[in-house]
């Protein structure tokens, strides 16, 4: 693991004294000790397929969100063989769901995603004949409302709601980050260096509005990604020397890297001028700063004048607040990133500007040129149709999520149960005849006659082998 290099900045630049502040907005929470333990449990050999062998409900006390911390998880079977045991966690408020196999539990560092509401159902699902399993839940983090200081430039806050798919929220530290196209990695992001000094961090895309009282709302687990802690690189060296990069693991629900799921990433400028006149259209900052009501720590953007450059420090007058650290500073002329927002100072009369690190900082350029630590997802497999839409589906709640992952040669969509009917392919879709009562499928969804597993991209050839549906990547 390459650690984050923490640099103590003794002297700041004359143009920006140390009264500026790094703009994080930690998510407020408290811990609830649980001590829940399933003991060793396994599916009976006579079971027809995957079976819930342990379940428990975890409750807070009217808290806005909940996240679980596991003490020990042992899951039998092999996910690649289609018989790996897994945890299934479901929000009792909005039915959002996360499934974690043995590998994903490690990637999430023995934690769950964030779930809205104060209660979740935890189920341990096992396949017959695969051996014993255990899950113990040590504690839960329960959410609270957070507040933070502002750094508004001028008389009022000019930020407006935005939905740039490239910009993510980091929790629980309370920062922003953004996808970049450097090295063609579909899972690499940039942020401020001081945003990466904490423990396990999660990034969230497609963040919904907060509650009217400002309590943040989390997106579904399909839009949450754990940071690979071994990939973190950067410095937290004060103004102009504050930057960080990292990669994330694929999403536990979709199997996708974020750039693939979001469909976009930022291009970076080759150099940044010190002349404000060159950026006559101003600059833009987009991120997840603190605000009032339903806008609190949701994505907002503001455009304002560029005030020049001193060394690797950029100065500008776009409105920001706590939580904006790590936001991209964007040149609207070509939509390229010129900097990383790190510090607020507009609300201090002796400073009068907000600041960030120039994207052409030589140390940052060198870091990006050397490629990331951790796993770079240069080629995202099993990308198309991560969600299978049943006929007539027009809302998120109308579809089923079906597992898909890459086995090293082909895309594995789903395994057939032991008692399921003969698989077949029709119009590039994989079906099997359901033997179950009332048209209920153990996997997939019922189209009125058969169970639909999924379908391969039109340019891929689907096939069955050993009871599983594949297509050639």
Description:
The chain has 473 residues and is mostly beta strands. It folds into three domains: 21-26 and 149-369, Thrombin, subunit H; 29-143, Jelly Rolls (Sandwich), CATH 2.60.120; 387-472, no CATH class. Helix content is 4%, strand content 36%. The chain has helices spanning 102-107, 258-262, 362-369, and strands at residues 21-22, 29-37, 51-59, 65-74, 86-91, 97-100, 115-116, 119-126, 134-143, 150-151, 160-161, 167-171, 175-179, 188-191, 202-204, 224-226, 233-236, 242-247, 283-287, 300-304, 306-310, 313-316, 320-321, 328-331, 336-344, 354-358, 387-388, 400-401, 405-406, 410-415, 423-426, 429-432, 445-446, 451-455, 462-465, 468-472. The strands form eight sheets. Strands 1, 11, 19, 20, 21, 22, 24, 25 and 26 form a nine-stranded antiparallel β-sheet that branches. Strands 16-15-12-13-14-18-17 form a seven-stranded antiparallel β-sheet, covered by helices on one side. A four-stranded antiparallel β-sheet has the order 2-9-4-7, with no helix packed on it. Strand 12 and strand 13 (175-179) form a beta hairpin. It is globular and about 75 Å long. It starts with 20 loop residues before the first strand and ends with a strand.
């Amino acid at each position: 693991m390459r650690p984050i290099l923490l640099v103590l900045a003794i002297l700041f630049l004359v143009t920006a004294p140390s009264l500026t502040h790094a703009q994080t907005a930690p998510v407020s929470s408290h811990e609830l000790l649980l001590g829940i333990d399933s003991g060793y449990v396994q599916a009976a050999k006579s079971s027809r397929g995957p079976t819930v062998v342990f379940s428990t409900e975890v409750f807070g006390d009217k808290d806005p969100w909940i996240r679980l911390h596991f003490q020990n998880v042992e899951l039998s079977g092999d996910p690649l063989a289609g018989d790996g045991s897994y945890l299934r966690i479901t929000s009792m408020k909005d039915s959002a769901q996360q499934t974690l196999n043995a590998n994903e539990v490690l990637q999430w560092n023995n934690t769950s995603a964030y779930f809205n509401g104060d209660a979740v159902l935890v189920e341990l699902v096992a396949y017959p004949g695969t051996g014993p399993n255990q899950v113990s839940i040590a504690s839960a983090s329960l959410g609270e409302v957070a507040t933070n200081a502002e750094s508004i430039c001028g008389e009022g806050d000019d930020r407006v709601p935005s939905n740039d798919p490239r910009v993510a929220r980091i929790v629980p530290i309370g920062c922003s980050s953004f996808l970049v196209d450097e090295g063609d990695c579909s899972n690499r992001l940039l942020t401020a260096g001081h945003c990466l000094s904490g423990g396990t961090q999660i990034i969230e895309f497609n963040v919904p509005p907060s509650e009217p009282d400002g309590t943040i709302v989390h997106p579904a687990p399909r839009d949450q990604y754990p940071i690979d802690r071994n990939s973190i690189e950067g410095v937290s060296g004060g103004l102009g020397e504050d930057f960080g990069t990292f990669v994330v693991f694929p999403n536990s629900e979709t199997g996708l890297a974020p750039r693939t799921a979001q469909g976009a990433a930022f291009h970076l400028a080759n150099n940044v001028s010190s002349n404000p006149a060159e950026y006559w259209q101003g600059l833009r900052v987009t991120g997840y700063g603190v605000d009032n009501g339903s806008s609190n720590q949701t994505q907002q953007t503001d455009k304002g004048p560029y005030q020049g450059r001193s060394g690797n420090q950029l100065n500008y007058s776009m409105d920001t607040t706590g939580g904006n650290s790590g936001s991209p500073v964007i040149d609207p002329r070509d939509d390229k990133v010129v900097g990383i927002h790190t510090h607020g100072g507009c609300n201090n009369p002796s400073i009068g500007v907000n600041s960030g690190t120039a994207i052409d900082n030589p140390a940052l350029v060198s870091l990006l040129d050397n490629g990331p630590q951790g796993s770079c997802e240069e080629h995202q497999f099993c990308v198309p149709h991560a969600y299978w839409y049943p006929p007539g589906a027009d809302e998120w709640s109308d579809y089923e999520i079906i597992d898909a992952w890459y086995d090293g040669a082909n895309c594995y969509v789903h395994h057939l149960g032991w008692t399921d009917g003969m698989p077949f392919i029709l119009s590039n879709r994989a079906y099997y005849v359901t033997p179950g009562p009332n048209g209920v499928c153990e996997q997939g969804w019922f189209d009125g006659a058969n169970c639909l597993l999924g379908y391969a991209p039109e340019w891929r050839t689907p096939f069955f082998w050993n009871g599983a549906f594949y297509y050639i990547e």
